[in-house]
Design brief:
Structural class of chain A: mainly alpha
Largest interface: A-B, 27 and 36 residues
Number of strands of chain A: 0
Mean pLDDT of chain B: 87
Shape of chain B: globular
Radius of gyration of chain B: 25 Å
Low-confidence stretches of chain B: none
Oligomer: heterodimer
Number of strands of chain B: 22
Helix content of chain A: over 70%
Distance between the termini of chain B: 51 Å
Number of helices of chain B: 17
Order of helices and strands of chain A: HHHHHHHHHHHHHHHH
Strand content of chain A: under 5%
Structural class of chain B: alpha/beta
Strand content of chain B: 25-35%
Radius of gyration of chain A: 22 Å
Low-confidence stretches of chain A: none
Chain lengths: ~375, ~500
């Protein structure tokens, strides 16, 4: 065990929030490189492929941003609940139900003016996601059932419920596969290639669409909510010290429910990207693990929007660059990249404090010396 | 010349960049009671933890009877005849006294003859020092005073020649303190050496023959107790002279503004902790609640401040009923009605240690103008206000953006106090305002409370420090087992009288 005690107040913010995560990330990538090497491929080549795949051409970059969009939503979802010290593991299920909200609003109200349909669909996504998070939140605040347990269970319930709906209730009856009909084309969210078309650039298809801007707006929304409003203040107070919150007249019950509902709503927005932006129908299992990866994104981004943006982008690069690598390198399977993600989570989440004391005390000593000279 | 039983030379110890002990030299003579006195955070406990082997010094040497020794763990210290009684007892609640004493030292003593032998040895010890303990009693049935005796007995049984006591009287009633002092004196008479760590000057004057004073990690003086006075020691502790008694004006009592009728309150385990309490407080008056910790004061304050539900009875503020068993106003509504509350336990309740100082300075008032407007926090106002009150209350360091846990206990308490006093409350509930706070800050806090009283606030002060109750209150009530067992005007009342009430024997 390390015995280094660092005076936290002397550690510059950029050491704990930039240098330490970067060191952890580098370590994760080095170990990943080792795996690639053992698998019989050249790690340097793999890195080149990742960079080419995610930045090297415009379509690849668009894919990277499309993945980033999803990770921003699910990362923010986890972060908001975490500020109230709630581990919302249910982003996956909330996103799934959020998708149902988008679809139901869009298909039933498609006669309205298009921008209004979009707004209502976004609202629907948020509302459905929030409603799905409300039940575990209620059980936590009134009955003390731990949200970690209930939200995990609610992921399974969401999955079963959606399969039931997709098979028996809202399936496109002309198809065998469990998915709905497509939404009318005029209410689809404009895609990236449509925009570049206006600018006179012709590119091939990519799933990137207007939802990306919604994700950026959500980053601002969360930052403002958590640090600039009394609601965020109260949520953080409950999260840090419930007893003190009660003393100050802040209701833990109310804030647990608010935090979880906003969290679930943000997860639900993933449905806007997937359904209004990309596939235009509900397909079975469309959240595809984004909800879970969002936990890692939030942990890496230290639950702050400014951290979540680069963390989401990094996972976007890994998703997109990773698929490029699996194309080009037959020895590297898709699952290798799941392992790489795992290593990043391991180093930046579980082993977060492995090198922190050493790094912080190194910089504190360094800076003190400069001051003394 | 006989070498001292314990000699420390140039002891240094730092935690990160905080130097807790700087070049400490200390000689303790055999058969004496040696006091070590200093403010909170002066480094007393650190130094003694080094002697007891809990910490290792960065440099310096420790000699026992002139022989240099190396203490790596408490076990080494015990072998060398050093015993320590901590502030928080280290006893297994559901074991008997005997089991606790032989625990970790049992060897073959758990069964049969050897156990019987251990018991006989202990009984002899008990008789020698008048301990009066039943060795077969279960710890959970014993009062705090007796538990402390078990700790002392444990050290003696393990062959302690030097006994270190860390703030031993903090949790005791005055009678228990007397008993403890008797025991300590008889230990001294039998040739044991006692090191007493405390921040209470009275105890030093009463009990010790020599005293060492620490300030900010340094040893600032050694003296024979008979050659010094309380005032002189206090000055050495804080580095300047301090008032030990609070100056206060004659009481200007107004009308009754806070009234409690037949109040009963239960704790979280559904045990009734406040039983049929009646009290009244007038404006311009400080009502002190004396009592040993755990006699219902905590639950009473929580009920009065709207944190805890009232079981029966009612509470009135300005003649208006604010709580009974059916309705109660939450703390925020009470704040709006002019009732502020400085809670007993600042870490658990009074503030959020991970928040920045300015966030704690508006805690509970965060949704009022000008700190927030239509739910949006007004950072400019909050920072301006924070700078102002931190200066006014001399909170050090004066940096509103520092995380609160980086402030010392006294400064954290000032943060709470400034927040609760800032709105000029009509009724102020105060619990343990100076717990873990150093002398300089105590003086300041007491003065603020007196100022509030002079401005016409009705103040309810609960404290386990009898001195504090006696120097601040106009009227004193004593709580024992959830009931009010006595009420006295604070004139000619002695701590002995109060002590008997606190122990529930009067």
């Amino acid at each position: 065990m390390s015995n280094i005690v660092v005076d936290k107040s002397k550690v510059p913010w950029w050491v704990s929030n930039v240098i330490v995560p970067l060191v952890n990330l580098t370590l994760a990538l080095l170990v990943s490189g080792l795996f690639v090497f053992i698998a019989g491929e050249n790690p340097i080549e793999a890195v080149k492929l990742i960079i080419y795949g995610s930045f090297g051409y415009i379509q690849g970059f668009a894919y990277t941003l499309y993945y980033t969009t999803n990770f921003i939503f699910t990362g923010l979802a986890f972060a908001v609940a975490f500020h109230c010290r709630l581990f919302n593991i249910g982003g996956e299920g909330q996103a799934y139900i959020g998708g149902l909200g988008v679809f139901l609003v869009a298909i039933n109200l498609s006669f309205l003016p298009v921008p209004i349909v979009w707004l209502l669909a976004i609202f629907g996504a948020f509302l459905f996601g929030a409603a799905w998070a409300y039940i575990p939140a209620y059980l936590q605040s009134k009955r003390g059932s731990h949200v970690v347990i209930t939200t995990i269970m609610f992921n399974f319930i969401a999955s079963s419920l959606m399969i039931f709906l997709l098979v028996d209730v809202i399936r496109d009856t002309n198809q065998m596969a469990p998915h709905t009909v497509k939404l009318p084309e005029e209410i689809w969210l404009p895609s990236f290639e449509a925009f570049s078309g206006i600018l006179g650039i012709k590119i091939r298809y990519s799933p990137l669409n207007l939802t990306f801007l919604l994700a950026i707006a959500s980053l601002f929304f969360v930052w403002f909510l958590v640090w600039k409003t009394k609601w965020g203040y109260e949520m953080r107070a409950v999260g840090h010290n419930t007893q003190a919150a009660i003393y100050a007249g802040i209701s833990p019950h109310k804030n647990i429910i608010i935090a979880m509902c906003i969290s679930g709503g943000l997860a639900g927005l993933l449905g806007v990207n997937e359904i209004l932006g990309v596939s235009h129908k509900i397909q079975a299992g469309f959240p595809a693990g984004y909800g879970f990866t969002g936990i890692a994104v939030a942990l890496m981004g230290r639950n702050h929007p400014i951290g979540i943006l680069p963390a989401a982008f990094l996972f976007g690069i890994l998703y997109q660059g990773g698929s490029e690598v699996t194309f080009e390198m037959p020895n590297i399977t898709r699952y290798m990249f799941v392992a790489v993600q795992g290593l990043i989570i391991l180093f930046s989440g579980a082993l977060e404090n492995l090198f922190r004391p050493q790094i912080e005390s190194f910089f504190v000593r360094r800076l003190n010396r400069e001051v003394n000279v | 010349m006989v070498s001292p039983i314990l000699e420390l030379t140039d002891i240094n110890k730092s935690f990160g960049h905080v130097q807790a002990n700087k070049n400490i030299n200390l000689k303790i003579n055999k058969g004496t009671i040696h006091g070590i006195i200093g403010e909170n955070g002066a480094g007393k406990s650190t130094l003694m933890s080094i002697v007891f082997g809990l910490y290792q010094a960065n440099s310096g040497s420790i000699k026992i009877n002139g022989k240099e020794i190396n203490l790596r763990s408490p076990r080494d210290s015990i072998i060398n005849g050093i015993g320590m009684v901590h502030q928080h007892f280290m006893l297994v609640e559901n074991f008997t006294v005997l089991e606790n004493i032989i625990l970790g030292f049992e060897g073959e003593t758990v069964f049969g003859e050897k156990l019987q032998k251990a018991k006989e040895d202990l009984e002899k010890l008990c008789q020698t020092y008048n301990f009066n303990i039943d060795l077969d009693a279960t710890i959970s049935d014993l009062s705090v005073g007796f538990r402390q005796r078990v700790e002392i007995l444990k050290s003696l049984y393990r062959g302690a020649e030097i006994l270190i006591l860390d703030e031993p009287t903090g949790v005791l009633t005055p009678q228990e303190v007397d008993e403890l002092f008797k025991i300590l004196r008889s230990l001294k008479d039998e040739g044991k050496t006692i090191v007493l760590i405390t921040h209470k000057l009275i105890e030093i004057m009463d009990l010790t023959s020599e005293v060492s004073v620490m300030r900010q990690g340094e040893m600032v003086g050694h003296t024979k107790t008979e050659d010094t006075s309380k005032e002189q020691l206090a000055e050495m502790m804080v580095g300047r002279s301090v008032l030990l008694r609070v100056d206060k004006k004659e009481i200007k009592k107004g009308e009754t503004i806070f009234k409690v009728n037949n109040l009963s309150v239960k704790d979280d385990l559904d045990v009734t902790r406040v039983k049929d309490v009646n009290l009244e407080i007038c404006s311009g008056e400080i009502l002190g609640i004396a009592g040993v910790t755990g006699n219902g004061q905590t639950e009473l304050l929580e009920a009065l401040s709207g944190i805890r539900k009232v079981e029966s009875g009612s509470i009135e503020l300005f003649g208006e009923k604010i709580s009974d068993q059916n309705n109660f106003l939450n703390p925020r509504m009470l704040k709006e009605k002019g009732l502020a509350h400085v809670p007993e336990d600042r870490q658990r309740m009074g503030l959020i240690s991970d928040f920045k100082a300015h966030e704690n300075l508006i805690f509970g008032y965060h949704d009022q103008e000008p700190y927030s407007k239509s739910a949006i926090l007004n950072n400019k106002e909050i920072t301006e206000y924070s700078n102002k009150v931190m200066q006014e209350y001399d909170v050090r360091p004066n940096s509103p953006n520092l995380i609160t846990s980086n402030f010392s206990g006294g400064n954290q308490q000032k943060i709470i106090l400034s927040r609760e006093l800032n709105e000029n409350p009509k009724v102020l509930l105060v619990g343990q305002p100076t717990r873990g706070v150093d002398i300089g800050a105590i003086e300041f806090i007491h003065q603020r409370l007196i100022d509030m009283r002079d401005k016409g606030a009705a103040i309810l002060l609960a404290s386990v420090e009898l001195d504090e109750i006696l120097s601040l209150s106009d009227r004193i009530i004593v709580m024992f087992d959830g009931k009010i067992v006595g009420e006295k005007e604070n004139k000619n009342v002695t701590d002995r009288e109060l002590g008997l009430l606190m122990a529930g024997v009067a």
